[in-house]
Amino acid sequence: MKRTILFLFGLFLFQGCSSCNHKDKVLVRNPAIIYRVKPEFLDKVPVQLDSTKKEVQSYRAPTDIKSNGGSLPTALEDGFFLDNIGINKNTSYLQITMETYSKLSQAPARDEMIKMIMKGDPFIEIYNTNMPKTGTEEFIDKINKLIKEKDFSSFNKIK
Question: Span 24-39, mean pLDDT?
């Protein structure tokens, strides 16, 4: 009886997934995000805004940028970058360069940051790769190969 119930439950789950539009895309807990940004935003400081884009939700401390090269994006092929800080569709950029920001003793207050936001949409495109971000050389090579081949079929386009 238990086997029958488990079989029927498994069949039910399988049937539910067969109608899904993304059945070959796997949800990954900490997926690698890749993006292309317009040139004028390349060396600027990214901040995360709320969905209204009127309040700063999160940002890196200047010391994070100084002491942790991992805060900087990893350059990939064709002008893409691998996100190392949490880029999303609500990310905006401050008018200050990473170099200048890294020299500050503390981050500006959030209300000051809002006044420093650069105008315009910074992103050309953003993708969730649906692959766990490892940062290894093999991982970077795999992402670069997909970019070179323009094979984004396994990715979810965010923008």
Answer: 82
| CB-CB contact of 123 with 39 (8 Å) | no
How far is 61 from 79, CA to CA, in rounded Å? 26
Q: Is the pLDDT of residue 13 over 80?
A: no
What is the model's pTM?
0.77
* Distance, CA of 144 to CA of 158 (rounded, Å): 19
Cα gap 84→155, rounded to integer Å: 18
Q: Are 88 and 156 in contact (CB under 8 A)?
A: no
Q: Are 88 and 49 in contact (CB under 8 A)?
A: no
Paired residues of 93 in beta bridges: 46
Specify whether the CB–CB gap between 122 and 80 falls below 8 A.
no
Q: What string of DSSP letters covers 60-80?
A: --HHHHHH-GGGSPEE-GGG-
CA 26, CA 147: separation in Å to the nearest integer? 19
Domain ranges of the chain: 27-157
Q: What are phi and psi of 75, to 5 degrees?
A: -70, 135
